[in-house]
Design goal:
By secondary structure, the chain is of the alpha/beta class. It is built from 4 helices and 5 strands. The chain has one domain: Glutaredoxin.
Length: 123
């Protein structure tokens, strides 16, 4: 924890779901729990990365507590990603085709069904 990392989404195949979560958010709790308990219903063809606000906006220890037990999905802190993907609220999801380098879907998700609908609509 506390180390800089780079997630090269152009190396992932075939789809990457960027999961923008806050550490304290009623709507975010379901997704933190899903990644913690490995209950994420995402298809195997989708790789997920959780993105919180960066260390200039939120305490890394708070992110560590929220992400405690999340082992199968990378959790990164990045204010820049929130700006680059124009995230205005949370939980927010951006589905990226890393080969074509395009966003193919985005949604505010209030439950896994919202996220799965977006993924299925994107094909």
């Amino acid at each position: 924890m506390g180390e800089s990392v780079e997630i090269a989404i152009d190396k992932a195949v075939p789809l990457v779901l960027l999961v923008f979560l806050a550490t304290r958010c009623d709507g975010c709790d379901e997704f933190w729990r899903g990644f913690r308990d490995l209950e994420s219903p995402l298809p195997a063809s989708v790789s997920a990365v959780v993105v919180t606000r960066g260390p200039d906006s939120i305490d890394a220890a708070e992110v560590g507590r929220a992400a405690s037990g999340v082992t199968q999905v990378p959790v990164v802190m990045s204010d820049r990603a929130w700006v680059d993907y124009r995230v205005s609220g949370y939980p927010f999801f951006v589905l990226v085709d890393p080969v074509a380098r395009v966003v193919i879907g985005e949604t505010v998700g209030f439950g896994w069904s919202d996220v799965l609908s977006m993924v299925q609509a994107a094909g």
